[in-house]
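Progress narrative, work stream C.
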Amino acid sequence: MPVTSELRDGVRIVTMDAPPVNALTVQGWFDLAATLDFASTDPHTRVVVLRAEGRGFNAGVDIKEMQSTTGFDALLGANKGCYAAFKAVYECSVPVIAAVNGFCLGGGVGLVGNADIVVASDDAFFGVPEVNQGALGAATHMARLVPQHLMRTLYFTARTIKAAGLVQFGSVLSVHPREELLDAALEVAAEIAGKNTKVIRAAKEALNGIDPIDVNKSYRWEQGFTFELNLMGVSDELRDDFAGTDKGARK
């Protein structure tokens, strides 16, 4: 299973495990959204820790699945799945702590940018390489991690930034050796789980209500340009180069 869930003393640990790089398939994104939606409605869940097994936290969508699928079904599915998963993180009725190990790219940034608290391993780094694959997205969420001009630099260049560099902005709470990452996340989670859950749930709703950016509409706006680039044929060419698939196989 690419997404699993475990409840420990009011802390629901949601784990992504989709080797080799945690690039989720269309179904994987919807499974993640469903798991988080369940956590949101479960009265026994007081806080969520979102983490991953393997080399890195999340490498975004499975481009090979997209390029080996006829027509635009996989593209549409990936866009809807990412939207659902990002939304599920943001609108989860309890706080979501992202525990980020290794690489966090594209869709991974979408998840982390919508989380409430971020802790990371000392080898973690973040990036939005969408322009390299002819797509747009997750600038909405990267803008929640870094200042505006840095976000634009990272977006236009597809550069990455280390987790340690985000501590200065307060978007990453703390950085730890990888073997200590889960314990660090659980320590923060236990502190929140020990509070009155009705108050914490009200606080989450209140904080979302005063957010200056509507992340759902903002991300949807970005996705519209991805569809335009696909209709122009630009995205397929770039994704084929990345995935090493046969051009025109999806015609």
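Work stream C, second folded protein:
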Amino acid sequence: MRRLTASLLLALSLALAGLTPSAKAHPHAWIDLKSTLIFDEDGQIVAVEMYWLFDDFYTAFVLEDIEYATDGKAAALIELAGANLENLAEYGYFADFQADGERVTYGPVETYDSGMEGERLWMSFVVPLSRPVDPREERVTFAVYDPTYYIEILYVAEGEKLRLSPEDTGCTAQIQPPNPDPEVVAFAASLGPEESGGDSLGLLFAETVTVECP
């Protein structure tokens, strides 16, 4: 089972204290990802909705200190999600949305939720773009990753990982897997739990979405 901690998130950073000495290589943490590109009535992309499914280690860490409600809507989990998102805003929510090679910035997240899927914690949130992007006029790419590669963020099973809303946009989205050099893989594997791979390592292991429209 995957496990998640994150040095850049408020509450997630506390989980680092729980890492065992046997943890030896990056990544040390994992998120299963789903995302939806949201279009407006003019066919422009205006927001990205993301669903993060945290690993069992971080889930257990959180539930140790939170009285969890069985209906999956514990106020404490919602509060934690809000705190994490406030911190993630500084890092662009780990989401790199680009139009014609230029990064598009985001507005503040106002819609979010959190709960449990089986034994694992999830968080969903909608990230509004700072401007609408027409994928027929601009080349759109999108990637979600921790720049330091402390956290590995990957899409989940085929058929569930990426959606367009509404579905009848006429566009398609393809996910391109990463292809890091063997030397980069070896470097990442050599990093200990207290070492950083720098602020560009994660991009080399990121899955990239490319949007194409007729």
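The first helix runs from residue 56 to 65. No further action is required on this item.
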